[in-house]
Amino acid sequence: MDELYLDNIDEFVNDHNKIVTYKSLSLALGVHVNTAKQMLYHYLEHKRKESSPQLHATYLVTGKFVGNGQTCHKVSIVREDQLEDFKSKMSLIVSVHVYSVQKALLKDSGPLYSVDYDAVKDNLKNCSKYSAIRCAGAEPMSPLELQQTLKVQIHPQPEPESSGTNRGTNTTSKSNTKPQKGIMGMFSNKPAVKNTSNEVKPEQKEDTAVVCPLLLLVLVVFAILLKVVPCSPQPCEKQDSAAAVQHQKDSRSKTKRVEDADSEEEKMDKKKRRRIKRPDPDSSDEDVIPDSPQPKESQPREISPKKEKTETGRSGMKVRKRRRVLKSQTYLDDDGCMVTEKGFVSESYSESEDDFQASKPAQRESSKAKPNLSSKDDDKKSQKKAPANSNKGAKQASIVGFFQKK
Amino acid sequence: MVADVLCEFLEVAVHLILYVREVYPSGIFQKRKKYNIPVKMSCHPDLNQYIQDTLLCIKPLIEKNDAEKVVVVIVDKDHRPVERFVFEICQPPLLSISSDSLLSHVEQLLRAFILKISVCDAVLTSNPPGCSFSVLVHTRDAATRNMEKVQVMKDFPWIVADEQEVHMKEPRLVPLKSMTSDIIKMQLYVEERAQKT
User: Fold this and answer.
1) Which of these, A190, A206, A267, B107, could form a disulfide with A383 (CB 3.0-4.6 Å)?
2) Separation CA B147–CA A157 (nearest Å)
3) Which stretches are tagged as biased composition: Basic and acidic residues (chain A) (predicted)?
């Protein structure tokens, strides 16, 4: 073996006062790591024979170690003065070789890591060139494959009609672009998970009670979504008990919203967000009447706020519009009992100042009723309604004013 | 930002010097991570607070480029310096930290400083037991007046250093490391007393 490497190592250790590890030596001299280990060993032996200034070395010991009744494979870096003691504790020694040579007595292994860190960083592209660890199956990706992989990670393809098995994938893919696809996610046929998130978003928007095109879009999208979301069986008849109704309120089942959406979506398609059709009282709507234990729900309520808001956005313009107004209807049921229910009625109106003031009292009554909507209506919409109604005195006034005109 | 980088580095360096030179027992030091390498930092609250307050007062001087040297003096029981770790700091007139590559280059240089401090045991003799330390700042003339203002604000008293701490008789000069970058130039050397015991 060429003896020049001894001078190189001596320069690193004595002149530069460096810590020379076998890894940094192999990268510096361009030799295999096993060759670098042998170099360090020969250098140590050579220097100790010459009685040179004291050098310190660390060793890498691997083998079987029995501890707490368990046998484990242990790899340790130990100082030279601790080597024999450590070897005696091992049940089987697989390998022992020089890890580093330096002049200073190291108190901990931190500097060893620092040396290898810089050495690897300087030779990042070929840090494993001289390594003894090989894997035949590990091949670097071609630039084309790498670009394709990066593209897939950055831009996952959306899958709007995914099955339940694809839910996780879509969730993952959509989570990466959450702000953008929060609304888009509502279009997919997602089970409870997605709908729950969709519920949260409308609720949040309801709290703000701000009429904006985005809110309207959300409501529309939500309505469309409800149409495709599978609904669980729920009592929807007028004769449902108050407890069942209350349960529906608490559970806020999506089914009701779905069924509401079923009836409403048709209307929406026709009216294009502006028109509110009066739903049939005998329809299978499940809107729960607030406050009083009235099982009959004639109209879906979630549509009204958004439609009102649609029209609110157009306030200031005196145009003929249709609105859903909460009206009380009294009738006799099969048992001969008088049942008063509140339902939304589609009415046409034109906004004016007179309508604003006159409609305020009526609006308050409706606003009281609305916060107690059933669970079928999600919280978002109920919350939307309360602040919306309280703030939209002008609209309600206009509706009441419409009635007064009549 | 240069002052922040320097003060962070000086904090790590002071802790490491105290650990390597065994000014305090090694048990109070724990392994932490800085510049992507393990370093030893004290976990004693009073010591940490003292070092932080010291560097907090030095920071305005560094920002104004008034600090020429920051010296960590290790003194023996008789308050005579045995070693002086001198950090000579010089900031180029035009400072521009605009690229990540520059910062990573500076980090690499600072990492080399840390590594050199870690192995300075090899070139220095052992210190006597019972040593303590202090931090000196060599400033330009006008900066000393500003130090009084800083002292009042920070409630951390600074006094003029004793002559014997500032100058050492016939010290042995041991250079450790130097670095040159676009934002800062620094060199570290040790003045060691010939007879420590």
Assistant:
1) A206
2) 61
3) 247-260, 298-312
Burial (0-12, 13-18, 19+ Cβ within 10 Å), A324: buried
Mean pLDDT value of segment B68-73: 92
**Could you write out the DSSP letters of every residue in A90-101?**
-SEEEEEEEEEE
Over 50: is that where the pLDDT of A368 sits? no
Closest Cβ–Cβ partner in A17, A103, A110 for B38 = A110
The rounded distance, in Å, linking the Cα atoms of B138 and B154 is 19
A321 within 8 A of A227, measured Cβ to Cβ = no
Q: Give strand ranges (E) for A291-389.
A: 320-332, 338-350
Cross-chain residue pair A108–B40, CB shorter than 8 Å? yes
Tell me if B36 and A117 make a contact (CB, 8 A cut-off).
yes
Q: Tokens 């494959």 — which residue?
A: A145
Asked if A110 and B36 come within 8 Å (Cβ–Cβ), the reply is: no
Q: Of B174, B151, B186, B193, nearest to B10 (Cα)?
A: B186
pLDDT for res B175: 92
pLDDT at A203 over 50: no
Beta strands in chain B (DSSP E): 29-34, 37-42, 67-75, 81-90, 132-139, 172-180, 185-192
Residue recorded with tokens 């009625």? A345
Which of the two residues, A177 and B123, has the higher pLDDT score?
B123
Q: Which domains does chain A have, with CATH numbers?
A: 3-108 (3.90.1030.20)
**Are the CB atoms for A233 and A270 separated by under 8 Å?**
no
Interchain CB distance below 8 Å, B31 and A19: no
Residues of A in contact with B20 (CB under 8 A): 107
pLDDT at A36: 93
Query: A377-394, pLDDT tens digit by residue?
Result: 444 444 444 444 444 444
Is A106 an interface residue toward B (CB < 8 Å)? Answer: yes
pLDDT of residue A340: 84
Distance separating alpha carbons of residues B196 and B169, to the nearest angstrom = 12
